[in-house]
Amino acid sequence: MSINILAIESSCDDTAASVIVNGEIKSNIVANQSVHSLYGGVVPEVASREHQINIVPTIDTALRNAGIDKKELDAIAVVSGPGLMGSLIVGVTFAKTLSLTLDIPLIEINHHQAHAMALFIDEPKPKFPLLAMTVSGGHTQISIMHDYNDIEVIGRTLDDAAGEAFDKTGKLLGLDYPAGPIIDKYSAMGKVVYEFPEPKVKGLDFSFSGLKTAILYFVQRNKKDNPDFVKENIYDICASVQDRIVSILINKLVKASKHAGINEVAIAGGVSANTGLRKALVSKGKELGWNTYIPKFEYCTDNAAMVAITAHYKYKQNLFADLSLKPKPRYAL
To answer: Is the pTM of this model over 0.70?
Structure first.
């Protein structure tokens, strides 16, 4: 007997739906909201309205591509947080309505956990315990995964996340939003010639606000002498910024690995799509004898396949929610 689960993700500005059958992803549909590029960042009110427009066709497409009728579903999974309240409300309300109408279980998913669980979609699957660093625009943290639903957070950002550092730097440099992929692209065409500081943060926590300030002063200082400094040196600046952000992440991961005594090491989340970070993890893994894991590109940024695989393992343990489920904009693991 097959287990068919529909997963819904609407925590920020992407409306996503996925169908998983017996642990195998059958569809993974994402509706992006390009309108936010006009404002240089996500506008919460606009995002929630776009979710209302996109959610029905996105779910219909996911079911159709999977060859599953909604009456064949065994459960509905939805991300309840963390994220933007208005965006979460759309997904959670829709999921609760489907659960009630179809009389099937509802599964609550934490967005942080889902990013880490994306590592278990494809082969080779990591072994436990797993040291996983999830890095995105909204969060940066290091966790020890003892099991699919047993996750211990051992380090988190104290201010800006790594993804924010990329996007806010991009804004300082006059790049379009989202700036992370642009900086990644430009880095390949430049050289690391500028030295930016690495924050002195004790333990396994992160801080990127100081780096952002250092970049701001760097830009202001050099533009005084040459107004076209950024334009003329954009590739090298991007390469230098990316090199520092990546080194901060990898250095903390090395420290965490030594602290926990774990050689199963992975990255996940939107920033794990960054080519510099992916190469650095593989290189450091070879140097230190790690078994390293990185999700496919389509499972790095916000998507519903990562929600679906998380729901699959929750379903097997009968970890269900009820209709009192509410969105949790701040939902820590």
So the answer is: yes
